[in-house]
Amino acid sequence: MAAPTLTRDPPPTPAPGRGLSDRTRAERRLGWLLAGPAFAVMLLVTAYPILQAVYDSLFDFRLTDPTNREFVGLSNYGVILSDPIWWTSIGVTLLITVVTVAVELVLGFALALVMIKMLRAIRPVIRAAILIPYAVITVVSAFSWQYAFSLDSGFVNSWFGWLPGIAADTDWFGGTASSLFVVCLTEIWKTTPFISLLLLAGLAQVPEVLQEAAKVDGATWWQRMWKVTIPNMKAAIMVALLFRSLDAFRIFDTIFVMTGGANSTESVAFLAYRQTIERLEIGLGSAVSVLLFLSVTLISVLFIKGFKIDLSQTRGDR
């Protein structure tokens, strides 16, 4: 007769809604208490403009004829979505967003790696120096870069004339591709420091004991980067990408200063400005603004769902 074996019953599955620890519940309550007043004020301040834009988008309304307001329902959205200008502006906005965010992520991560390895004495000075471009007002930086690439007063053509494709008479703002290149370069120069600081905060949260254990196991620098560093700073990467993507998708100042929307460089935000301020088409402009708001909301949802970050597990809760 075979000897009886001891078996351990599997742990009971926690009921839905009971998996949170007391610490997590307490932190959530504290978070709502601290952020609740500010959230309520922001909701009151932003709710009215959003609802007013949604309301105005349902009317054929022009400021040149304010007494003639006709309810048209969703026809303004149909006019916009069927217009090639809308899809061109969407393409331009997506191109700027993807290019700038991708380059800024790489450069920002490189800067973060450099800053975290610096001596503690000079680290604050380097951080302050890196933040200078981000501290410059967007309009000022746009005018500066426009001056640098200007055909008449710029110095880029004379300094980099030895490069292929650049001559003394190169008109950077005379075509779509070259104009978007300058716009993207301006955005990258200004907002890379923002990405680098967010990623630096994420690097500081990576446990040093994991790095040492990986070294003992014989992992190379690249293996430690992909298997240890990046997985442990996934939350910081998501926050950096989310914030910067939302900001890049709403780009307006740089395009307004540099190109004015010429040469098919019009972004969605600039299209809303042109319809509302220049053409005084309140109905169509409000519809563009609502579509921009929905696009930004969709981007937020995709990032949050795509990264699948569980902050409680990131803190070590069970």
Structural class: mainly alpha
* CATH homologous superfamily assignment: MetI-like
The CATH architecture: Orthogonal Bundle
Termini Cα gap: 43 Å
Distinctive features:
single chain; 318 residues; mainly alpha; MetI-like fold; two-stranded antiparallel sheet; 15 helices; 2 strands; 68% helix; disordered N terminus
What features would you describe in this structure?
This protein has 318 residues and is mainly α. Helix content is 68%, strand content 1%. Helix 2 crosses helix 14 (282-307), helix 3 (84-116) runs antiparallel to helix 11 and helix 13 runs antiparallel to helix 14 (282-307). It starts with 21 loop residues before the first helix and ends with a helix. The protein has a single domain, classed as MetI-like fold (Orthogonal Bundle). Strands 1-2 form a two-stranded antiparallel ribbon. It has helices spanning 22-56, 75-81, 84-116, 123-130, 132-135, 138-149, 156-159, 176-204, 208-216, 221-232, 234-249, 253-258, 268-278, 282-307, 311-315, and strands spanning 59-60, 70-71. The protein is globular and about 75 Å long.
